[in-house]
Amino acid sequence: MEPHPRDPGRTAWVLPCLLLLVLPGNVLPGVGSQAGQNFSLQQPQAKVSVTAGETITLNCTISGVAGAGPVKWLKGWGNGNKTIYDQKTKDPRVTRAVNESNTDFTIRIRNAQPEDMGTYYCVKFVRSDSSVDEVFQRGSGTEVSVQAKPSPPLVSGPEQRIEAGQSVSFNCTTGGFFPEKIGVKWFKNREPMLAQLPQVTEWGVKTYNVSSTVKVTLQKDDVRSQLICEVQHSTLQVPLRERYQLSRVLRVSPSGEVRAEPSPVEVNKTVTFTCLLKEFYPANVSVSWLENGIGIKVENVSQPSEVSQGLFELKSQVEVQATEEKNGSTITCMVVHDAQAPANYSAFLWISNPGQGGLSKGFQMNKDDMLIYIVVGVVCTVLALLVAAILYLIRTKQIKGKSSPSARLHEPEKSSEATTQESDPNNLTYADLNFDKERKTIRRMVEMSQQSEYACIQTNQAPNGDDNLTYADLDMVHLSKAPKRPAPRPEEAGSEYASVQITRK
Ligand SMILES: *[C@@H]1O[C@H](CO)[C@@H](O)[C@H](O)[C@H]1NC(C)=O
Ligand SMILES: *[C@@H]1O[C@H](CO)[C@@H](O)[C@H](O)[C@H]1NC(C)=O
Ligand SMILES: *[C@@H]1O[C@H](CO)[C@@H](O)[C@H](O)[C@H]1NC(C)=O
Ligand SMILES: *[C@@H]1O[C@H](CO)[C@@H](O)[C@H](O)[C@H]1NC(C)=O
Ligand SMILES: *[C@@H]1O[C@H](CO)[C@@H](O)[C@H](O)[C@H]1NC(C)=O
Ligand SMILES: *[C@@H]1O[C@H](CO)[C@@H](O)[C@H](O)[C@H]1NC(C)=O
Ligand SMILES: *[C@@H]1O[C@H](CO)[C@@H](O)[C@H](O)[C@H]1NC(C)=O
After folding, report:
1. 203 lines ligand 3 (CB under 6 A)
2. Which of 208, 209, 235 best tests ligand 3's pocket when mutated (most atoms within 8 Å of CB)?
3. What's the pLDDT at 31?
4. Where is pLDDT greater, at 432 or 55?
5. Mean pLDDT of 245-266
6. Residue whose CA is closest, atom 14 of ligand 4?
């Protein structure tokens, strides 16, 4: 239907007819000029890069005159090409930048996706005689790349809680990103961790997923610890981070013990059994009490209290009446923690023997009391020995010299209650008076010890005349029941005798 360009005669005739044809077709202006001679198609962009979700703008302008036929946008060339835009396309994402323009065929593709990646060609078709659109001219192509941000990372751990001390794997996944290059880092609190190389897999068209695994040995003090998976990618200004609280999977089983107070107990008194559960996590724990395997009703159910590092502690108490037949009973604290198998902690109920109340009390004495008693005992013994030694020394001195005048009254030695309670058969009292004969002056009696007494018999008060003095010599005044013994220690001597001698001048 196109006019022959070499026939000007026909041109005038055809023109109105042509306009009728061209207008509904919305193809090219200047029809009837020499097609292809000064026609040019400009596709200025060699590369366009957008992030997924953004709008891709593909520029194309034409000038000059060409034969009738549409301008289209194709993605790819040759086999597998895809028409992105022509006058009939209904893809709502694709719009013209300048509607109805006959020169500007720039298109926009909204909400770019990784699958939009490829090379786009702006193509001018010309309709052949047989009504088939044939490629007339194409642009140099625009390479579109759509970078995709990785999805927010997800950290997953074990399905069930894991006991502290065990090793456990955690996984961090993210996907839908492009390009393929991605970095995954792990931190425990702020410390970087060693992890296996991340596994990148292709997922869909031009998008990738990644999975990274790290192994952690759970610790008792990890209740407040967290793992951080950090993802770095060219599309991200700030790395993506996902946190995982280790308390979600950590289990710390309690350590427990049962104590009986007092033990042994007097019959018919109350014993308090205390079950102390230390350092456990999580808090869900149930405590029940058994007496010889049979449940005891407990009024107060105590609640776990939080101690250091987020761990819990629980103290459960039960009071048991110590009737005689309960002697030797086993009191058990049965603990079910975090739906685990029950753990049992036990103590015995001991009733003290009523006959040996005092003795058993003595055995009950704790170590501190025992020590005090031992110290007191030792001190008393040492003191007693010292006194004995001093007395002995004084005595021997008197026997040897007899030169110094002295008077002593020995009283029974007071022994401490701790060492002995029975009465000493050798208990004795004696006096010892020793006055010097040769001296004719008034004696000054020297007090040798606190127990000694002295006697002085004086006939004349005037000390001038030596001849007026009368003196007594009481060598030994000894009153005791037992016969005299030769032992040097006066305390042990059992003799009883008196000797009073008065010498006249
Ligand atoms: C592409 O086309 C649009 C709309 O005509 C225009 O605003 C823009 O400047 C063009 N860009 C280039 C690089 O030619
Ligand atoms: C586009 O692909 C079709 C077949 O799918 C083919 O017939 C046509 O020649 C191709 N066009 C171009 C410009 O490569
Ligand atoms: C890949 O990542 C996407 C987006 O995060 C997710 O929807 C998809 O399930 C992942 N595929 C695989 C096989 O992990
Ligand atoms: C203990 O109590 C029982 C019953 O109440 C009573 O029979 C028994 O005599 C009591 N024993 C003592 C030592 O008090
Ligand atoms: C039980 O709880 C109440 C109130 O808290 C308290 O007065 C009582 O002494 C508790 N009894 C025992 C056996 O702990
Ligand atoms: C603890 O006691 C309960 C009840 O007697 C019993 O079923 C359980 O097996 C015991 N557990 C252990 C570890 O002894
Ligand atoms: C309780 O049992 C212990 C150990 O068998 C025993 O030594 C004690 O005398 C008993 N007490 C009574 C009150 O029977």
Report:
1. yes
2. 209
3. 38
4. 55
5. 95
6. 268
**Per-residue pLDDT at 77 exceeds 50:** yes
**Does any ligand 3 atom lie closer than 6 A to the CB of residue 310?**
no
pTM for the predicted model, two decimal places: 0.59
- Please provide the average confidence, as pLDDT, over all residues in the chain: 77
Residues 6+ apart with CB under 8 A from 120: 58, 73, 74, 75, 84, 141, 142, 144
pLDDT, tens digit, for every residue of 206-235?
889 999 999 999 999 999 999 999 999 999
Q: What is the DSSP string of 2-46?
A: PPPTT-HHHHHHHHHHHHHHHHHHT--SSTTS-TTTS-EEE---S
Pocket of ligand 7 (CB under 6 A): 267, 327-328, 350-351, 353
Nearest Cα residue to 151 out of 173, 171, 123, 168:
173
pLDDT tens-digit map of 262-306 = 989 999 999 999 999 999 999 999 999 999 999 998 877 789 999
Write out pLDDT tens, residues 427-470: 444 444 454 444 444 444 444 444 444 444 444 444 444 444 44
Nearest CA to ligand 7 atom 3: 350
Distance 302 CA to ligand 5 centre (A): 9
Return d(Cα 421, Cα 12) in angstroms, integer. 155
- Nearest atom in ligand 1 to 45's CA: 13
- Between strands 162-163 and 250-251, the pairing is parallel
| C-alpha to C-alpha distances, 27 to 5, 74, 104, 184, nearest whole angstrom | 18, 18, 12, 53
User: Can you tell me the distance from the alpha carbon of 72 to that of 67, in angstroms, rounded to the nearest whole number?
Assistant: 15
- Angle at the Cα of 499 from the Cα atoms of 497 and 503, rounded to 5 degrees: 175
Q: How far is the CA of 61 from the centre of ligand 2 (A)?
A: 22
Report the distance separating Cα 263 and Cα 92, nearest Å: 87
